[in-house]
Amino acid sequence: MSRVAGSSIFTFQKVKRGHSMAQTASELARTPGKSVTFSTTPSAEPSTPTRTGRSEKKVQFVSTTPHRLRKRMTTPSIRSDSDSELSPSDSGEDEDEEDKENSKTPRTPSKGLSAALYKTPAKKSKNTSEALGQPSMIEEYFEAHGSSKVLTSDRTLQRLNTPKLDREMLVQLLEGKPSCYSKEIQQLHNKHRKHFSKWMLQLQLGFSVMVYGLGSKKALLEDFRVSHLGQEIHLVVNGFFPSITLKSILNALTCDVLEHQGSFRTPSDQIQHITQTLKDSPDLHVYLLIHNIDGLMLRGEKTQSALGQLASLPNLHLVASIDHINGPLVWDQFQQSQFNWLWWECVTFQHYAEETSYENSLLVQQTGALALSSLTHVLRSLTPNARGIFKLLVKFQLENKDNPSYTGLSFQDFYQRCREAFLVNSDLTLRTQLTEFRDHKLIRTRKGADGVEYLLVAVEASTLMDFLENEEGD
């Protein structure tokens, strides 16, 4: 709408709501026969556009465009539509028209502005952190985890003012402190006793009974033995004993149970004899009760395979207990089929008093009495020549106890000493005796750098001296 007053014409155009100021400027610029020039330089006087036509008259136009919009109109923008500073109501068509108008009249920005607008950011160098002297994340990881120093606490039992106790004193103190849950423990025991008749039925049907759960099961199995196996032929094996071996179990079965007089060359011959004897006497039933079948000395593959062969016999019945959490991993699928276990959960919450009596405690002063008793017990079951061979090795080790470079007695030297003492007549006999010592964990064998086999008694020197004194006294 236009209004003429004197020699001045004021052009006023009402901007509809929702239209931007850029749209208004664009429409004015497209008016035919008119050329409108806008000045973006701030000045006190209003900008005066010139209009060309048949009659030139001065037109005074007051711009109402904001400063930001005027800057956008004069400077080419590289921003996207999402980063536009215009109002959200601007349509796409108006923006296209504005781009066309800007393309008709390109404007060259200044050097500083063009450098700021069109400068491509440089790629971040991989060695930026190294250049700055800061370690990378990989270096920080290896610095944190590559240290071999392990910090441990120095609060040990050695720093206590109270000295270590004797084993007898420790046992007396533990016995003098009864459990406050003895009534509940007895109720659990009575609950498990109700299943004894089922165990006997399952054993006669060809299954083997496995008892597991938290707490010692020795008292429970002993109760089962007294109440149901008292009139049967049975053998009890303490698997937690440190010197128990497969040979001792087979010897007890052949000599004590089957009353066989004679010797066998290998454990396979003994198993074959037991199998044939029980096969010839189908009415003979033998019950084998093993405490801690997962004991340290019974975990070997050969031992478990031999026990599996015995358990597969129709008239040999096996009852066992297990305490190690990974105990079932000892058997493979074939051995599982031989044992044919039926698992019974029997939680007793009783102390492992007898099972741990052969282990060293941090609260007990190590006097060597336990190792001495085990050593004496094992050697008394051997032949006189075997005891003489072991004594000869013990004496030589005590002679070199003050030698820090002593690594053991070589096999050839030991064989010559035993032959001079008339203890063996061949190296094969000596190796057979050494196998017996190795099975009972009495000696250790190692090969030196020259390939020679060396023998060493795996007992402390003080215990060996006490052992020789007891042997000489006897």
From TrEMBL:
Transmembrane segments: none annotated. It is found in: Nucleus. Residues 15-132 are annotated as: Disordered. Residues 184-346 form the Origin recognition complex subunit 2 RecA-like domain. Its main location: nucleus. Residues 37-52 have a biased composition (Low complexity). GO terms for molecular function: DNA replication origin binding. Residues 402-460 form the Origin recognition complex subunit 2 winged-helix domain. Signal peptide: none annotated. Residues 91-100 have a biased composition (Acidic residues). GO terms for cellular component: nuclear origin of replication recognition complex. GO terms for biological process: DNA replication. It comes from the Eukaryota. Keywords: DNA replication, Nucleus. InterPro entries: ORC2, RecA-like_ORC2, WHD_ORC2. Component of the origin recognition complex (ORC). Component of the origin recognition complex (ORC) that binds origins of replication. DNA-binding is ATP-dependent. ORC is required to assemble the pre-replication complex necessary to initiate DNA replication. Belongs to the ORC2 family. This is Origin recognition complex subunit 2. It comes from Sparus aurata.
